[in-house]
C-alpha cells in the first residue's frame, strides 16, 4: 500500500493471502455461527497463539504461561460467570508480572500483552453472546472488517499515494484508508436494506467500523515497530501472525460491546434486537 513498493511486487503475496483467507474465513464463520463452547474453543486457540506470538516478539521468558492463562480465560466464558474469567486473567497478570525478568518495563510489557491478546477474542465472544442478536451482529461486523481490509489492500496497492502514518506503519496509504471506508459504506447500505432500518444508521456504523478496524491495525503496527519486528508471526502465509490478522476485528468487537452497553438502544436502531 505504500507508494515506495515496486509496482511489480505490490501483489506478490496475493495468492498466499487468498489461500489463507479461503481457509480462515469459513472457520471463523462456523465458530461464530455456533457460538457457545464452539466459539469459546476457537477464541481460546486464537488467544493462545497470539500469546505465544507476543512472548516471542517481546522476549517474555515463559511463553507457555501466557498461552495457558489467555486460553483458559476464553474457555471460562461459557460457564456463565464472568467472575471466573476475570479471576483467571487477573491471576495471569500477577504471574506474568512475577515471572517477567528485568526492569518494570518488561513486567509491564508482559502484563499488557496478556491483557491485549486475551481481550480481542473475549470481546468477539461477548459480542456474539450479548443480550442482542449476537449472531447477526458478529457476522455483520466481521464481514465489514474483512471488506475494509480487502478494500484497503487493493485500493492502497493499486493507487499508492501519500502514506497514512509513515512512522507507525509505512505501508498504509490514504488511498487505502479511503477505499476501506467506502467499502464499509457500501456494506452499510446492504445491511440496512437487509435489516429494514434507515440507511443512515448503518452507513454511520460502517464508517465507524472501518475507522476502528484501521486504528486497531495501526495500533498493532505501532507495537511491532517498538519491538522492531515486521510481523507478529509466520503461521498464516501472506498475512503473518494471528495478531496481524485479527487486530482490526478485535478492536471493532471491543468497541462494539462497549457501545452496545453504553447505548442499549443502539442494537435496536441497527435492527439487531434480540
UniProtKB/TrEMBL annotation:
InterPro entries with a match to the protein in the record: PC_trans
Listed GO MF terms: phosphatidate cytidylyltransferase activity
Catalytic activity reported: a 1,2-diacyl-sn-glycero-3-phosphate + CTP + H(+) = a CDP-1,2-diacyl-sn-glycerol + diphosphate
EC number, as in UniProt: 2.7.7.41
Protein name per the record: Phosphatidate cytidylyltransferase
Alphabetical list of PROSITE patterns matching this protein: CDS (PS01315)
Subcellular location(s) of the protein: Cell membrane
Transmembrane segments: 21-48, 54-77, 84-104, 110-127, 137-154, 174-192, 199-216, 248-266
Pfam families, alphabetized: CTP_transf_1
Sorted UniProt keywords: Cell membrane, Lipid biosynthesis, Lipid metabolism, Membrane, Nucleotidyltransferase, Phospholipid biosynthesis, Phospholipid metabolism, Transferase, Transmembrane, Transmembrane helix
Topology class, membrane: Multi-pass membrane protein
Amino acid at each position: 500500500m505504500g507508494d515506495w513498493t515496486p509496482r511489480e511486487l505490490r501483489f506478490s503475496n496475493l495468492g498466499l493471502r487468498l489461500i489463507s483467507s479461503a481457509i480462515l474465513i469459513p472457520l471463523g464463520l462456523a465458530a461464530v455461527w455456533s457460538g457457545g463452547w464452539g466459539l469459546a474453543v476457537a477464541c481460546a486457540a486464537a488467544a493462545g497463539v497470539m500469546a505465544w506470538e507476543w512472548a516471542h516478539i517481546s522476549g517474555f521468558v515463559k511463553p507457555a504461561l501466557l498461552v495457558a492463562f489467555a486460553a483458559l480465560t476464553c474457555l471460562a466464558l461459557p460457564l456463565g460467570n464472568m467472575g471466573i474469567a476475570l479471576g483467571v486473567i487477573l491471576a495471569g497478570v500477577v504471574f506474568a508480572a512475577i515471572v517477567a525478568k528485568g526492569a518494570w518495563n518488561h513486567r509491564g510489557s508482559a502484563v499488557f500483552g496478556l491483557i491485549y491478546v486475551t481481550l480481542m477474542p473475549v470481546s468477539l465472544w461477548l459480542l456474539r453472546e450479548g443480550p442482542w442478536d449476537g449472531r447477526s451482529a458478529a457476522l455483520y461486523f466481521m464481514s465489514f472488517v474483512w471488506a475494509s481490509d480487502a478494500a484497503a489492500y487493493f485500493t492502497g496497492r493499486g493507487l499508492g499515494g501519500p502514506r497514512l502514518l509513515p512512522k507507525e506503519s509505512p505501508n498504509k496509504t490514504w488511498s487505502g484508508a479511503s477505499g476501506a471506508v467506502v467499502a464499509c459504506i457500501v456494506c452499510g447500505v446492504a445491511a440496512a436494506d437487509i435489516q429494514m432500518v434507515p440507511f443512515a444508521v448503518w452507513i454511520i456504523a460502517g464508517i465507524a467500523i472501518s475507522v476502528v478496524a484501521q486504528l486497531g491495525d495501526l495500533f498493532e503496527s505501532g507495537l511491532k515497530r517498538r519491538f522492531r519486528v515486521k510481523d507478529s508471526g509466520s503461521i498464516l502465509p501472506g498475512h503473518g501472525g494471528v495478531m496481524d490478522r485479527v487486530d482490526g476485528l478485535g478492536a471493532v468487537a471491543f468497541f462494539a460491546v462497549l457501545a452496545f452497553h453504553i447505548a442499549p438502544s443502539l442494537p435496536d436502531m441497527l435492527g439487531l434486537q434480540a
